[in-house]
Design goal:
- The complex is a heterodimer.
- Chain A is 40% helix and 25% strand.
- Chain A is built from seven helices and five strands.
- Chain A has a five-stranded antiparallel β-sheet, with helices on both faces.
- In chain A, strand 2 and strand 3 form a beta hairpin.
- Chain A starts with a helix and ends with a strand.
- In chain B, strand 1, helix 2 and strand 2 form a beta-alpha-beta unit.
- The chains are: A alpha+beta, B alpha+beta.
Chain lengths: 190, 71
């Protein structure tokens, strides 16, 4: 079930523009749609037995990931506007997937850090380092917030942007992949 | 931002500002950095109270580590 959701998101990001599913239940064209759906997540998680503190933490992390997509691609979406978003939870374990077909981390951060050479350097900056830039205003801390919480709560995050793949549990690993993904795909396992 | 514009704009910089998180269910760094960090930078006597909520703790930790929140 869980891997299927991640595969669906991967396929959604990699599809040709004319073949992207924008009619399905996982598609959020606008921030309003995304936030309305995310606002229902804490209650769903708590009703299935999750501690309320963790439920709202997951909600907050999803909010940062989804809003990153809308903030950083505002008026610059390369083709399909919006994100793929869904959460599954069976009372014991679950996952949230947020994906976009946007500019990706490297293109976004290059505005603030033009010396970045590749996707791996870009995701390392995004997840681990303070970014001093008026260009990004105060939008540069969402991924660090997610990383800190994943490590503190023993969760798992898989993040893919461009040719960089990030895996976070107690540690963070960044590796190069030949499977290029234009945009971002975040899969949060809890 | 309405808070900053209308309620505290004209206060002296040594005014005691108390930000109370009682009843907060979720806080995120993108919002908090726009409001709490900026208030704390402007008003040196800013106090944060009732910060026990998990998301409040996590957000403040992130802003202290990666942004300019010094309190």
């Amino acid at each position: 079930m869980k891997n299927d959701l991640e595969k669906l998101a991967h396929k959604w990001v990699k599809s040709k523009t004319e073949e992207v599913d924008t009619q399905g239940e996982y598609y959020c064209q606008t921030r309003d749609v995304f936030e309305a759906r995310n606002n229902k997540i804490p209650e769903m998680l708590v009703n299935k037995g999750m501690d309320e503190g963790l439920a709202y933490l997951i909600y907050s992390m999803i909010g940062e990931l989804g809003n990153n997509s809308f903030d950083h691609n505002l008026a610059n979406w390369p083709n399909v506007i919006g994100i793929f978003f869904n959460v599954e939870y069976d009372g014991e374990s679950g996952m949230a997937v947020i994906a976009d077909r946007g500019l990706g981390v490297l293109n976004t951060l290059k505005k603030a850090a033009p010396n970045l050479n590749n996707d791996e350097e870009a995701v390392e900056l995004a997840f681990t380092k303070k970014i001093s830039s008026r260009i990004l205003e105060n939008r540069g801390n969402g991924l660090k917030f997610v990383k800190n919480n994943v490590m503190d709560k023993n969760l798992v995050l898989k993040f893919h942007s461009g040719n960089a793949q990030v895996f976070i549990n107690h540690n963070m690993e960044i590796k190069h992949t030949g499977d290029r993904l234009n945009g971002c795909l975040a899969a949060l396992y809890f | 931002m309405a808070l900053e514009s209308y309620n505290i704009k004209d206060l002296p910089e040594d005014e005691l500002i108390e930000i109370d998180f009682e009843g907060v269910k979720a806080l995120t760094p993108s919002w908090a950095d726009e409001v709490i960090t900026k208030i704390a930078q402007k008003f040196k006597n800013t106090k944060l109270v009732n910060t026990e909520n998990v998301t409040v703790q996590a957000t403040l930790k992130t802003l202290r580590e990666y942004s300019d929140l010094k309190i």
